[in-house]
Amino acid sequence: MGMDTNVFRYLVLPLLIFTARVCDVTLSTIRIIFVMNGKRNIAPILGFFEAFIWLLAVGQIISQVDNIFAYLAYAGGFATGTFVGMYVEERLAVGMAVLRLITKEVNEGMLAFLHDNKFSYSLVDATGRKGKVNLVFFVVKRENLQRLIEGINEHHPSAFYTIENIRQVNEGHNFNSPIDNQQNARRWQLKRR
Prior knowledge:
The protein has helices at residues 5-36, 43-63, 68-92, 108-116, 142-155, 181-188; strands at 96-103, 122-128, 131-141, 160-166. The protein is of the alpha+beta class. It folds into two domains: 5-92; 96-188, Alpha-Beta Plaits. Strands 2-3-1-4 form a four-stranded antiparallel beta sheet. The longest helix is centred in the first third of the chain and has 32 residues, at 5-36. The termini are far apart. 21% of the residues are buried. The model is unreliable at 177-193 (pLDDT under 50).
């Protein structure tokens, strides 16, 4: 006993098209992120599967030109795939980010946090709208970004910071190496004029 033709045409086939679109758009989103982050080895493989799945979905749409449910499944799969792709990309946390922190001063608790978590940073004296400030640059792996933000919010809840993804970093720096906390602590403790 086989499946009813109408059940296949109006339920099973649209579900397959929806699933195919979710998969190929998710792969597309991840592939684009990998290309932007210089991960050139895996991007072509993802592109192959993305195109293959897309061709399967489009082939089914063309064969069901009068089936509105197939069109809705195609569009719904695209929208859902975009969401799923962003979610997966966020969880993968591929690449590096730069965080710029602007604060009046950094306390000992923040210094200890940076040292304990092996975050490297560069400090620049700057002038803001309200006077002297510290501009602190961090280049971190995106997988460690949330931990840095938690530390900033814990030790400087009113600090201002911005975050940007960066495409490439000179690999001459080890982002997991211990920092010279004593030397940097002296910089933070300089009196402001």
